[in-house]
Amino acid sequence: MRAEFLLYAGVDELDVLGPYETLSVAARLGAEVEVALVRPESMDAVTASHGVLLTPHALLSAAPELLVVPGGGWAARTRVG
Q1: In a structure prediction context, what are the per-residue pLDDT tens digits for the chain, which is 81 residues long?
Q2: Rounded Cα–Cα distance for residues 6 and 36 (Å)
Q3: What is this structure's pTM?
Q4: Which of 8, 25, 45, 61: disulfide with 55, CB 3.0–4.6 Å?
Q5: How many CA atoms lie within 13 A of 73 on its CB side?
Q6: CA 67 vs CA 15, 51, 61: distances in Å
């Protein structure tokens, strides 16, 4: 299974990295899962909600098996996220 984590400006770092780490560890332990950070149109890095720069591995595929859309910006009520 391929799990794709959608990156966008203002995404919450913990919402991306927690599940990403969990699935990455599962893959190292033998689970049939591949994880990737993705963007729909650009390979540019994004600035997450607390200033961390996240760089995608690939573009969003046409039909990911699992698409993780992390939260972001909700508590801060910012314009992005």
Answers
A1: 999 999 999 999 999 999 999 999 999 999 999 999 999 999 999 999 899 999 999 999 999 999 999 998 666 666 665
A2: 9
A3: 0.87
A4: 45
A5: 12
A6: 13, 23, 10
Rounded CA gap, 34 and 72, in Å? 24
What are the angstrom distances between the C-alpha of 27 and each of 19, 22, 38, 43, 67?
12, 9, 18, 24, 17
Name the one residue in this structure whose structure tokens are 């595929």.
61
Please say whether the dihedral angle defined by the alpha carbons of residues 7, 13, 17 and 19, taken in this order, is positive or negative.
negative
Please give the Cα distance from 10 to 56 (Å, whole number). Answer: 14
Q: Which two tokens stand for residue 17?
A: 């990295």
- Look at strands 53-54 and 46-47 and give their pairing: antiparallel
